[in-house]
Specification:
With about 220 residues, the protein is an alpha+beta fold. It is about 20% helix and about 30% strand. The protein is built from two helices and eleven strands, in the order H-E-E-E-E-E-E-H-E-E-E-E-E. Strands 3-4-5-6-11-10-9-8-7 form a nine-stranded antiparallel beta sheet, with no helix packed on it. The chain has a two-stranded antiparallel sheet with strand order 1-2. The protein starts with a helix and ends in an 8-residue tail after the last strand. The N terminus is likely disordered.
């Protein structure tokens, strides 16, 4: 009895390190599995909104104001109104609306404040990832210095055929430009998002119509 007891004590002292190392191994394996799962879903299959879609006229909004609304229909009260020869500007707090035609109707807008939801619900101050998550196709990488075709109607996915989106660099900042198919007047609806490359946050949003294809990358 006296000889066997010390052996049991030594055996018990040895079990604790073995159990500890075994537990750490299991924990490390679990952490690695989670990390690989996150890498797979985040990088190889980027998360996208269930409402991800190509930019179109339905996305030309400033809050509850939609493109085509006349001055009487707009659910907004401007701080001031500036009448110009061919257009009328409604000055809001952090946004400007452009009304053209007869009767004057909303045809373009710019936003510099997070107070206003713009195309696809994106606001100034949101990140580039927020915008990309609401588009139909996302790049694996979008780095400053490279032109990236975000999505396109081209069957081969190589040419800019409206509707399409492009991420480019202009004057030291990132610019995401989304272009829809031309309307009956051969004008292209577009939206542009200026992005600070330091923190990937949107600083300015604009949308309107262009007679030339906006954001074209040669």
């Amino acid at each position: 009895m006296h000889r066997s007891q010390p052996r049991r004590r030594r055996y018990r002292r040895q079990r604790k390190p073995l159990l500890l190392w075994g537990g750490l191994a299991v924990l490390s394996a679990a952490v690695m599995c989670v990390a690989l799962w996150l890498l797979f879903t985040r990088v190889l299959h980027p998360a996208a909104s269930g409402d991800a879609h190509a930019f179109g006229t339905r996305d030309m909004v400033v809050g509850a104001a939609c493109v085509g609304m006349t001055a009487e229909q707009l659910p907004l009260q401007p701080l001031s109104i500036v009448n110009q020869p061919h257009q009328t500007l409604w000055m809001l707090d952090g946004a400007t609306l452009t009304l053209t035609g007869k009767p004057p109707a909303l045809s373009a807008a710019t936003m510099q404040s997070s107070a206003w939801a713009g195309p696809m619900g994106v606001r100034v101050g949101d990140t580039l990832d927020t915008l990309l998550a609401r588009l139909p196709v996302q790049p694996l990488e979008a780095e400053a210095g490279d032109d990236n075709l975000l999505y396109t109607a081209d069957a081969q996915g190589a040419a800019q055929v409206p509707p399409y989106g492009v991420l480019s660099v202009e004057s030291g900042q990132l610019m995401a430009t989304l272009v829809a198919a031309p309307n009956d007047q051969d004008a292209y609806p577009y939206a542009s998002f200026a992005i600070d490359p330091d923190d990937n946050r949107i600083t300015h949003i604009a949308w309107g119509f262009s007679t030339m294809v906006p954001g074209s990358v040669e």
